[in-house]
Amino acid sequence: MNPHALRHRLLRPACLPFHHTPDLSLMLIEISMMWRRSRPPLCPYNKTSSFKNTQKNQAYLLMWGLKMKIVGIAIKQLRGLAQMLKSRFKSILAGTILGSIAGILMLTCYSLGFLDHRSNLGTPHLPVTSFVQLMVTGDYIVKASDCDDQMMCEQELTPMNISSASGVKVSKGRILTAGHFCERFREVSSAVGLIDSDGDLLEDAQFVAIDHTGMTHNLEILLVMPNIDLCVARSRTVSGVEAKLSRRPPFKTERVWNIAAPQGIYFPNAPILLEGFYNGKTSRLGAHYTLRTAPGSSGSPIYRSDGALVGIVHSVHPSFGMSTYAVELEDLKKALQATE
Question: Which of 100, 145, 211, 280 is the most exposed place for a label (fewest CB within 10 A)?
Fold first, then answer.
């Protein structure tokens, strides 16, 4: 059969004679019986065809059109679903790939120190007013040089500075400093009422902090950790900003800054600022820095360029004043958690 003739027959509504009226009930019966048939309804165009054949042909046409309509709708929906899944898969895949690349680049930059080096190029923003100088003072009763014939000498009360160190104010009025300095205060306190080799009597001992305004405040010791040489003290009245702990430790070769009172040199609101580098961790002495320190720098804070606290100085090599050792950041966090 000619395809054009077949198409002509399928498209023309001539399988049903115009003078016949289809019965809807018969058409529904025919549709239910022929639903599983997949071939199109082919019927000759014949005006003399019987009424029964006409109903059957009309049912074929309706059934086939309904099938094609359902199939068309299903194909359209499936095609839209496929396009949506395809676009979403592309966006998810692209986002995953871009996120993975960005994560790899970030980790690489952090491991190599590129991102931190950029932040170290400018002027550091240090919480200078968080620094305090710590002092162990004592009141001594000393013998005066004027003595009478019975060798009775006058006595006078003389305050003296026994030792000094550095410290930094953190949250809740706590002061971080070196552990051996707090131990020194305990030793002096245990000697109250004793006479030293010069014949002077220690009347009283105090542990005080001098803030950036020059005011003196009494301190109480909360915690001493001799294994890492760290001490946590407290004073509710010390003024100044609170230093914040860094979220992560410094990287090797990172430039750091130190605020200290070496050799007891301290001017309120104008402490000594020093610059150095982080070298890495040691097996027993904690973090190692290339940083100029001296007696009196014990307990001084070490900052990053953004002002975050990363360490507390506890000692320096006796043969080289630039080889400095400090408490590590993780130990600082543990000490603060223990004194909450």
Answer: 145
List, as own/partner pairs, every contact residues 183-192 make where C-beta atoms lie below 8 angstroms and the sequence separation is at least 24, other chains included. Answer: 183/224, 183/226, 183/231, 184/136, 185/136, 185/221, 186/221, 188/136, 188/138, 188/162, 192/138
Helix (H) or strand (E) holding 217, with range, is: strand 216-218
Six token digits for residue 51: 């009424």
Query: What does each C-alpha distance from 105 to 26, 96, 99 come to in angstroms?
Result: 73, 14, 10
pLDDT tens digit sequence for 239-266: 999 999 999 999 999 999 999 999 999 9
In terms of Cβ atoms closer than 10 Å to its own Cβ (0-12, 13-18, 19+), residue 213 is exposed
Tokens at 329, concatenated: 């950041």
- Crossing angle for the helix pair 51-112 and 24-33, nearest 10 degrees? 60
Which amino acid is it at 323? S
DSSP one-letter code for 244: -
